[in-house]
Amino acid sequence: MAKDPMLKFISKAQAYPEKRAPELRAEDFDEIANRYAPEAAADQASRCSQCGVPYCSVHCPLHNHIPDWLRLTAEGRLREAYELSNLTSTMPEICGRICPQDRLCEGNCVIEFSGHDAVTIGSVEKYITDTAWEQGWVEPIEVGAARGQSVGIIGGGPGGLTTAEYLRVAGYDVHVYDRYDRMGGLLTYGIPGFKLEKDVVMRRIKRLEDSGIIFHANFEVGRDASLDDLRAKHDAVLIATGVYKARDIKTPGIGLDGIVPALDYLTASNRKGFGDTVEAFESGALNAEGKDVVVIGGGDTAMDCVRTAIRQGAKSVKCLYRRDRENMPGSQREVANAEEEGVEFVWLSGPKGFDGTDKVERVHVSKMRLGAPDASGRRAPENDPAGDFTVNADLVITALGFEAEDLPVLFGAQDLNVTRWGTIRVDHTTQMTNLDGVFAIGDIVRGASLVVWAIRDGRDVTQHIHNWLQAKAKAAKVAA
Description:
One of its GO terms (molecular function) is oxidoreductase activity. The protein is of the alpha/beta class. It folds into 3 domains: 22-135, Alpha-helical ferredoxin (Fumarate Reductase Iron-sulfur Protein, Chain B, domain 2), CATH 1.10.1060.10; 150-243 and 404-479, FAD/NAD(P)-binding domain, CATH 3.50.50.60; 247-401, FAD/NAD(P)-binding domain. It contains 19 helices and 16 strands. It has helices at residues 22-25, 38-45, 55-58, 66-74, 78-88, 92-98, 110-113, 121-135, 158-169, 186-189, 198-210, 227-233, 262-274, 279-282, 300-311, 332-341, 407-410, 443-446, 451-479; strands at residues 150-154, 173-177, 214-216, 236-239, 245-246, 259-261, 292-296, 316-320, 344-346, 349-355, 362-373, 379-383, 389-392, 395-398, 402-403, 438-440. It has a 5-stranded parallel beta sheet with strand order 3-2-1-4-16, with helices on both faces. Strands 6-14-7-8-9 form a 5-stranded parallel beta sheet. The longest helix has 29 residues, at 451-479. The chain starts with 21 loop residues before the first helix and ends with a helix.
């Protein structure tokens, strides 16, 4: 009987793909680590304990068949591993790169609980699908028989693209409308190349385009067409815009030049990576080169900003966060990467004001301490007046999260129901809004969340849209 290749977590240590030296990776926007060599991927996959209750899958929003494709990888059956991972995810190599595995699958790995360090699930996932692309195993989308119905999708981010793919497989005509000049949403313009190289995103989009999905770039609903116009044009409409409005910070001096929202800053940097002409970058407004940079926030977007500033040649980069390291929302791996690259974290601190002559020159900082737990159970930060201080800053980047734009006004659809937070109100059993045939998913329903949840929502809503379109076609047939 062949020896079982699994359960090697005692004899084989956890090993992530080797990262480039910090001083080298800070010179470019390439990903900081290469993928595994085949032997290393098989070795790390073999550490899986094949536990009876796979908590890694339970805590993955997509419920990926993780232990199964780890076993296939360990056995050298890589094409089967790819096909299995592709069953539940439209973008496995993207999730392998940008999911916070330390909070999801790997953070809930059974052998992690036993003290043997988690299986490196994300790195193996990335390896599997990158290899599949290289080997030609990623086949064109197989389009189903034409149904004579069309769906308009507003938003070309991960949720909208996922639904577009599944609906195309089902035989529907699909049109995707996006305000940017390239599809991909935050995958394209919000996440830096050192976490997600852009050719990885573009090849996914090309595969969708090759299937006959029609992309309408530089298209703003409300400017180029109203929501009602799209409803008249298509049999169903999906809103998957995400949330892009920067959360306000009410602090004296906030209007000074040199204080910029995180997404503006990251978009300019990513556009430069594509070779675009970006006037705000060339003028220095959205360029950290030679500057003392202060980033305010502790989430993954803040981590993207501090690490981008390092690569742009900032003189210094500080990150102010009002809680301590243990209570920050961003990935601890990203914090470690940033520290290696030269970012200084100033924990338990928040801005109390900005000043400068013609533009921002200083940030006045309140020292914080952790008080009683807030409604979420985390200890709420409160001012510690004895510890206030000032730091120099030529560029301040605010990364305090995102809120929903006023879509009823923006889309010319005053009858579209929203919650008190501005997110779209839906029937959660069908993901349909109060408007007949108009569905909504992702951050515009959930609030700011993870890419993997947008993919999950895009997968789930496909069945609801299909059911509704089938009922509509049946009713039209009966009426005729």
